Every structure is written in structure tokens, then in C-alpha cells.
Sequence to fold (112 residues):
Amino acid sequence: MDIRKRQDSGVVYLTLSGQFDTTALPPFQKELDALVENGPRNVCVNFRDVTFINSTAIGYLVDAAQRLKDEEGELVFSSPSDFVAATVRTLGLFHIVDIHDSDQAAAEHFDG
Fold:
């Protein structure tokens, strides 16, 4: 899995591509854990090019969302691929994490 990072107006955007599974989790976890610890604490994860996500990655994302919330931050998702969107719907993750159609929509969410 490839992780691209950019920051804009206090929000960090992490754009992922490939398969988000147990072997891909450690580099992502390192990146996000640093943001939880040091800020900024508003994070958007773009899933446009993610072809697969497993339960370990989902569990970590749910935990990270709660940790960011505890630190007065927020984790949102943007541009979910068909596979990620179906997984989010099936598991009801939209009750835990806001889902946006694009990074721009996520930016508007944080601005609002």
C-alpha cells in the first residue's frame, strides 16, 4: 500500500492506494499515531484507490477515530472505493466516522 500525505489548513490528508491489510497497517499506524500524539488532530483518509480493507485495518481506524475525538480532533473518510464503501455500509461505520465524497467535501466539513 502506498500512503501520500499533505496538509492544508490544519487538516492532514492521507491518500491510500492498494490493499489495506495487516501487512500494510504498520506504516499507516505509525503515521496516524504520530498525528494523534503531536497533531494536527483533524485527519482525512482518502480511500479512492484502496482495493481491499481487512478487519484489522478497520479495527485500527475505529480506535484511531476515538483517540482523535478524545484529543478534540476528528477522523473522516473521503472518496471511498466501491469495496471500501460497501464495507463501510455493511459494518455501519458511517455511525462512527463521517464519510465524504471528496477531499474538498471533507475540507468543507472541517471548515464548517
Notes: The beta strands are 2-8, 11-20, 42-53, 74-78, 98-100.
